Amino acid sequence: MAEPPAPPRWAPFLALCLLWLLPGLIGHEPWKPDEAYTFGLVRHLAASGDWVVPMLAGEPFLEKPPLFFLTASWTMRLFEGWLGAPDAARLAAGLWIAIGGLGLASAARGLYGPGHGRWALALLLGTVGLPLRAHQLITDTALLAGFCWGLAGLCHAKDRPVPAGLMLGAGAAIAFLSKGLLGPGCLAIAALALLGHRSYRSLAYLQTLAIALAIALPLPLCWMFSLHQRSPALFHVWLDANNFGRFRGTAQLGPRAARGFYGLTLPWYALPLWPLALLALWRAGRSRFAKVEWLPPLALFGVTLAVLLAAADARELYALPLLPPLALLALSGLRGAGTPPRWLKWLLALLMAALAGYLLLGAAALSFPLDSILARRWLEHRFPGWAPRFLPGDWLRFLAASALLAWCWRQPMPGAASLLWRWSLGLTWLWCVMAILWLPALDHGMRYREAFSALKPRLDNIARGGDCVASLGLGEPQRALLEYYAGLRTLRLEASPAAGRCRWLLLQTLHDPVPSPYDALRPVYAFQRPGDRKERFRLYKLW
C-alpha cells in the first residue's frame, strides 16, 4: 500500500494544535451540567486534600474516581493567582488532551512508522464532535488520554513488548482512575481479543500483558482499598450503582439510551474519520488483504462500541473513546488516497462557507446593536437577556488566530492530504469564532454567577439568624455552584432527615410546575439563570 504524503511541517502543525487547544479553556464560568458539579468536587479536594471520597456540597459523590479532580485541583492552586478558579481548574482538561494527543501520535507511529503521528493528530483535531468536550472541565478528557495510551500499548505490542506493556498499563490505570471500570474493561477485552490472531499468540505479547497488568493494578487497588477502609457502604455505592448499575440502567443516573442513538450520533460526531475508515476497509476487502496492523484499533473500536450499545444510558459524550481508534483506521484510509473528486471539494467548501457566514453574522449581532428585526429576534431566541457589546480584545485575538491559520493554509500538500489538512484548519477556525467571539454571550446564558450571587445577601441574613435552608429538586450542578457563589450548603429533603426542621426552603423546578403543598405558598424570592427558560428557583419561608 502506498505511503501517505510527507507529514505537515512542525511549525504549521504546532500552530494548528495550539489554536485548536487554547481557545475555550479560559474565559467562562462553570457551565451545567458536567462542568458545574466537577468544579464542586475539585474545590473540595483542593481545600481538604481528601482524594479518597469525592464530596459535593457536603455529600459523598462516588460517580467517578479522583484522578481528574486531583489534577484539576493542582492546576487550580498553581494558576489561581493569574486566573480565576474555574479557568485555572479547566487547564487540567487541556493538559489531559495534550497527554492523549501524544499517546495517539505514539500509537500511529507504532502502526505505520515515523511521520504518521502528526497526521493522526491532524485527523483527530478535525473531528466535529471533539472540540466542545475537549475544552470542558470534565473527567472524560482524562478517560480519552487513557484510551490513547492504552491503544498505543496495543499498537507497539508486537515490536516493543516492554514499552508497550508500560503504555497499556498506564492507559488502563488512567482510564480507571478517571471514570471507573469502563475504560480498563474495554482495553482488557480488546487486548485479550487480539490473542485470537496467530501473530499475537507469542511470548512477547504475553510479556506485554503481564507488564500491563503489573502497571495497571497498584494505583486503582490503592484507591479502592482506601475507599473500602473508609466506608464499605460507599465502596458498594461506587462499585454497584456507579459502574454496573449505570450499565444496567438500575441506578437511573444518566439519560436512557434511545433506539439507534449512536447510529444517529456517530455520522456527524465522528466526521471525517468514519468515511476514511470505511474507505480503508473497502480497499482491503477488494484486494482480499487483511492488514494485521489494523487489529488493535479495530479491536478497541469494536469492543467499545459494543459496550456503549449494550449500556442502558447513552450520551454523545460517551462516544469520545471511539475517536482515537477510529482516527488510526482513518489514517490507513489516507495512505495512498488519490485526488478527491471536485464535487467533494466544492461540497465541503460550501459547507464551511455556510457555517462561517452564520457564525460571523452571529458574532456581529452579539457585538454590535444591529438595526435589524431578524438580528433582534435571533438574539431574543438564542441569547435572551444579552445586550450586544463590542469587546476589542476578543476581536484582536480572533484576527490574530485567523492570520496564523491562513499562514498554515498555505502549506502545499497533494490530493486528499490537502483536503483533510484544510478541513482541520477550517474546523479550528470555526472553533475560534465560537470560543472567542461567541464565548461571552454563551457564558452569559450558561452561568449561575448572577443568579446565585444575588441570592447571597438573603442567605447571609438567614445564616445570621441561625436558621438552616432545606432544598427540594436542587440538582448536583446547582448545589455545587450555590456553595461556590453564595456560600450555602442546603439540607436536601430527599436525603437529610434534618432538612424537615428548617424554616427556609429553596425549591428548583423545571417548566414552572410547583409541587404540593408549596404551590399554596408565596415565595419570598424567585429567580432564574440568565437566558434559561426552564429552571426556576424559589425561596420560601415555611414558618
Walk me through this protein's architecture.
Its main location: membrane. This is UDP phosphate-alpha-4-amino-4-deoxy-L-arabinose arabinosyl transferase. InterPro entries: LipidA_mod_glycosyltrf_83. The protein is mainly α. The chain has 3 domains: 20-334, no CATH class; 343-446, no CATH class; 449-541, no CATH class. The chain has helices spanning 10-21, 34-48, 67-79, 85-112, 116-125, 130-134, 140-156, 161-179, 182-193, 203-216, 218-230, 232-248, 261-269, 273-287, 295-310, 323-334, 342-367, 373-382, 392-409, 415-437, 439-446, 449-464, 476-486, and strands spanning 55-56, 59-60, 469-472, 491-492, 504-510, 525-527, 535-541. The strands form 2 sheets. The chain has a 5-stranded mixed sheet with strand order 4-3-5-7-6, covered by helices on one side. A two-stranded antiparallel ribbon has the order 1-2. Strand 1 and strand 2 form a beta hairpin. Helix 5 (116-125) packs across helix 16. The N and C termini lie far apart (79 Å).
Summarize the helices and strands and which ones pair or pack.
Blueprint: H1 10-21, H2 34-48, E1 55-56, E2 59-60, H3 67-79, H4 85-112, H5 116-125, H6 130-134, H7 140-156, H8 161-179, H9 182-193, H10 203-216, H11 218-230, H12 232-248, H13 261-269, H14 273-287, H15 295-310, H16 323-334, H17 342-367, H18 373-382, H19 392-409, H20 415-437, H21 439-446, H22 449-464, E3 469-472, H23 476-486, E4 491-492, E5 504-510, E6 525-527, E7 535-541
